[in-house]
Amino acid sequence: MAVKTDIEIAREATKKPIMEIGAKLGIPAEHLLPYGHDKAKIGQDFIKGLAGKKVGKLILVTAINPTPAGEGKTTTTVGLGDGLNRIGKKAVVCIREASLGPNFGMKGGAAGGGYAQVVPMEEMNLHFTGDFHAITSAHNLLSAMIDNHIYWGNSLDIDERRIVWRRVMDMNDRALRDMVVSLGGVSNGFPRQTGFDITVASEVMAILCLSNDLEDLQKRLGDIVVAYTREKKPVYCRDIKADGAMTVLLKDAMQPNLVQTLENNPAFVHGGPFANIAHGCNSVIATKTALKLGDYVVTEAGFGADLGAEKFFDIKCRKAGLKPSAAVIVATVRAMKMNGGVAKADLGAENVEAVKKGCPNLGRHIGNVKGFGVPVVVAINHFYSDTDAEIAAVKAYVAEQGAEAILCKHWAHGSAGIEELAHKVVALAEGPSNFAPLYPDDMGLFAKLETIAKRIYHADEVIADKSIRDQLKTWEAAGYGHLPICVAKTQYSFTTDPTVRGAPTGHSVPVREVRLSAGAGFIVAICGEIMTMPGLPKVPSAEVIRLNDQGHVEGLF
Questions:
Q1: Which among 359, 353, 297 is positioned nearest to 322, based on CA atoms?
Q2: Which one, 229, 316, 366, 514, has least CB within 10 Å?
Q3: Which pLDDT does position 2 carry in this prediction?
């Protein structure tokens, strides 16, 4: 059977003018800033006018640890949004923007797949409305102004050995991880060691995604700690006087983007922090706006629930005062088989025992999400190779965990293939949700890190040098002890070793480095071998992306 590619399906979509999609949500045309015919930004004045409106129900879509077999979290998020609209609910989808790094690397696009996609797919996976370019520019403006301040006399007495603000670029480029700048003589400044992170790891990205409005944005930008003096006193972005210009660059990027699904339902696509190195959620302003405009808002958190969902609950919901009503954990039969030891090449053959053996990874995520007090349902994202016996094995296992697993065929059939899950989500959302973060604000920083490692990763211990523990104590003394922890680690495992599948216990979590994101409002703990500037794989996706004879993009997926 010939199966159309995601990009072929997206290209055949019958899109409605974006003003019609806005009208569905009650957004007047004058409050939409159009970017072409099929995407628009929502004006800040309109968003401010929603302040007193009733808030809808927030549904989180998360997943098991990703495998090369594929899980389909964004696809399920989009499909569920369409499914809820199909059964008569006013639902809005909220997802993140795609980074060029993984698009040209190995992950591919981030607009869903099959008949559960957000369009325009090509623009969303490339430059879209320019938000990432604005974030990159604002971040690097601050970098340039720090070095410029030092060049012109360094009146703030910045210790050049203690500049903690790096540069960013929205591309996977391992050559930029560690470098020396300002070589070439007196006119080029003072040589020092620094490096680049990927834009989605930028604190500016995190700040934009956690800010409530432009005033909040500028304050948070001003709070960024960029360096320390020779007396180890912090130097802030506002001391460099960069916060105003950065806000100007981010003025339009701060406005949420409105697009549509293949079934012409509204979708907000805004912000894009990675979940393995940042907090992995779309913007607070998009989510809160959607909650005022829809009865149900379906949003996703990046990678598995050990990263994305934990950060969604402990960082985004804590900071924004959000209370999720239900959570969906996406799994596939194929991924269960991989967790059960089956090689990718052998996934097509029925193997019920491998499915059963791999299910504990799913079980761990179910228990973890329940631990936040949020009701859970499992979505089995269907593949053609799944057999009835394999599907039954997953359903039986999930039932033993006190939850329900529902087979979803939205990839092939759109909203018609996910109605059962939509009804279940409504039932869960109408019931009680006793949501609470994992740890209180007043817990010590290292204790917060240990709580995540032990309760979410099921590790025995956190390994950290004295210098790291001392750094955390210094930040506590400086008034940052109330901040949550944002763990940067591999997405492929509960451990820091990406090759360890399943539901391991008894492991250690080594912390390599900690970074203060004072503007965003969290502490980043970098664990294991995770890199904040990824590299390209041996055969990057970029090798097959091109324009065909008709001028259409090929190879983007």
A1: 297
A2: 229
A3: 61
Is 343 a catalytic site residue? Answer: no
Given the residues 104, 132, 303, 522, the one annotated as active site: 303
Model pLDDT for residues 341-372, shown as the tens digit of each residue = 999 999 999 999 999 999 999 999 999 999 99
Q: Which of 41, 73, 292, 424 is catalytic?
A: 73
pLDDT digits 0-9 by tens, 461-503: 999 999 999 999 999 999 999 999 999 999 999 999 999 999 9
- Kindly report the length of the chain: 557
| Residue in 15, 39, 96, 167 annotated catalytic | 96
Sketch the domain layout of the chain as residue ranges.
Answer: 6-129+253-430, 132-247, 445-527
CATH homologous superfamily of domain 132-247? Domain 2, N(10)-formyltetrahydrofolate synthetase (3.30.1510.10)
Told to judge if 411 belongs to the known catalytic residues of this protein, a careful annotator would answer: yes
Our answer to whether residue 275 is catalytic in this structure is yes
Catalytic residue among 312, 372, 411, 522: 411
The answer to whether residues 69 and 336 touch, using CB atoms and an 8 Å cutoff, is no
The CATH code that applies to domain 445-527 is: 3.10.410.10
Q: What is the DSSP letter of 200?
A: G
Indicate the CATH number for domain 6-129+253-430. 3.40.50.300
Helix (H, G, I), strand (E, B) or coil at 119: strand
418 alpha-carbon distance from chain centroid: 23
pLDDT in tens, 35-55: 999 999 999 999 999 988 999
| Alpha carbon distance 414, 408 (integer Å) | 10
Active-site residue, from 62, 67, 75, 247:
75
Active site residue 96: yes
Our measurement of the distance from residue 67's CA atom to the centroid of its chain's CA atoms, rounded to an integer in Å, reads 17
Which residue out of 268, 313, 383, 522 is catalytically annotated?
383
Which pLDDT tens digit goes with each residue over 304-339?
Answer: 999 999 999 999 999 999 999 999 999 999 999 999
Tokens of 132: 């990432």
Same fold, 132-247 and 445-527: no
* CB 277, CB 488: distance < 8 Å: yes
Active site residue 303: yes
